[in-house]
Amino acid sequence: MASFTVDPNYGYVLIAATSTFLMNFVHISNTGKYRKTAKVPYPLTYAPADRTDEAAHKFNCAQRSHANFIENQVSALGALLIAGLRYPVTAAAMGAGWTVMRYVYMVGYSQGGEQGKGRYKGIAFWLFQLGLLGMSGYTGAALVMGW
């Protein structure tokens, strides 16, 4: 039976991972606020296409921001947990940076703006996500190669 020791600093990785769960609740609250303002009833995911008012547009942007978060959370979280096995402090910092940039992305996108350009304010989340992806790939390769 194989076993391994986890660096005590891996706790920071788990804290960073937990921040992504909390960020999901922030998204839920944000989207709910815009849904209420736009008066978009459940179970509609987005405001109907014939709604061209600002409230409907902002709700659609908030909803799309949340969907984009969910689309990326799984990959970022997996990469964070893997990268943290070899680089716990760096991975935790990258994970925290990812969460902060996802918040900035949400706020910017939810402001509406032409063609959702507010989302570019937090687009740096990709740097953190790709960094985590690279570190997780290297962690796997190093394990296989015995580095």
Number of helices: 4
Mean pLDDT: 95
Radius of gyration: 18 Å
Shape: elongated
- Structural classification: mainly alpha
Q: Biggest β-sheet, characterized?
A: none
Distance between the termini: 21 Å
The percent range for strand residues is under 5%
The helicity comes to over 70%
Give the SSE string. Answer: HHHH
**What's the count of strands?**
0
User: Low-confidence segments, ≥5 residues, pLDDT <50?
Assistant: none
Structure description:
The chain is an all-alpha fold and about 150 residues long. Helix content is about 70%, strand content about 0%. It is built from four helices and no strands. It is elongated. It starts with 9 loop residues before the first helix and ends with a helix. The mean pLDDT is about 95.
Structural features:
0% strand, mainly alpha, 147 residues, 72% helix
Q: Briefly, what is this?
A:
The protein is mostly helical.
Question: What secondary-structure arrangement, pairings included, does this model have?
Answer:
Layout: H1 10-38, H2 54-86, H3 88-110, H4 125-145
Helix pairs in contact: 1-2, 1-3, 2-3, 2-4, 3-4
